[in-house]
């Protein structure tokens, strides 16, 4: 099994958390690729539908966004790592997430009573969201978890789990990382 | 009396002129202009591309009494450049204690409820930066609305011009979800045929 961690942090301050997460993934049998998005040139999605209607399955923008989409299409588990930003994800993570649209089909389907897109690939990765906040914040945490859950529905992830690490409580990190991995592998 | 200022932030990659976000936001802006507001429009994607454009957009936000953020839903949230702009606003606390925020959001699914998470993110942003939350209008499958979205925007414009939060209004839909899905799937096939990729729509270029 392999996992891809999309690291949407602005700097390297969260690397300790990524290391703990990677260790938890290794223990569960995952080989993990960590992609530090701040080091990648990824242009914003143009909203042109070219990835559906001109070069189906591949974005028309030829930059590192394509490589991220390729890695995600081939993995078993996708992990968002991001500072929780207004209850959502950071711009650093979102620039890559917006470019994952080629990995789903343009065709509509009814999923859990709502309209979503059909799968492009038979195998879709499960999705973990691991957010960070300076201190505990119940409202932001709830919103972040809801966002990840809805993303999982849109990307047709078979399993999903999300949690937030409060940076003033570093002792909790290991248990949270282990809990997330267990939630999507059991 | 000092003229009130309304700023339209268009968060569509297609720009102000060619996007649904620009068109709908522009209609709301016109209703405010007719009520005496000074108005300005900024394309967010262009604003975050250069330091000078960013400074200019932040200055416009700092001077605004009312900010209308009009954008398409992207993966349950805002397009990345919009988040980047809002991060800059938050860092500098631009317009704190002055601006009010109204969100105009539309998604490519027929259910307007799918915008709920993004609405909550906008409200949370407003609380964090000290802007007054004035509510939002969430639209699904906007091309099916006909003129009803404009009627709703005019009612919202009237409330915002009076300094009130926007009334909680839903634009009347013209099409049920099942029909939207069926029609949409036909449209995709037709478009692919025109582009010469009809047989490749289900391509899997990244398969092992």
Short overview:
The complex is a heterodimer of chains A (186) and B (208). Chain A has one domain: Flavodoxin domain (Rossmann fold, 3-Layer(aba) Sandwich), CATH 3.40.50.360.
Please, could you describe this protein's structure?
The complex is a heterodimer of chains A (186) and B (208). Chain A is α/β, with parallel strands linked by helices and 186 residues long. Chain A has a single domain (2-185), classed as 3-Layer(aba) Sandwich (Rossmann fold). Chain A is built from six helices and seven strands; from the N terminus they run βαβααβαβββαβα. Chain A has helices spanning 15-27, 50-53, 64-74, 91-97, 138-154, 173-185, and strands spanning 2-7, 31-36, 77-83, 104-111, 114-119, 126-133, 160-166. In chain A, the strands form two sheets. In chain A, strands 2-1-3-6-7 form a five-stranded parallel beta sheet, sandwiched between helices. Chain A has a two-stranded antiparallel sheet with strand order 4-5. In chain A, α1 links the parallel β1 and β2. Chain B is of the alpha/beta class and 208 residues long. Chain B folds into two domains: 5-174, 3-Layer(aba) Sandwich (Rossmann fold), CATH 3.40.50; 176-208. Chain B has a five-stranded parallel beta sheet, with helices on both faces. The longest helix of chain B is centred in the C-terminal third of the chain and has 18 residues, at 177-194. Chain B starts with a strand and ends in a 14-residue tail after the last helix. The relative contact order of chain B is 0.13. At the A-B interface, α3, α4, β4, β5 and α5 of A face α4, α5 and α7 of B.
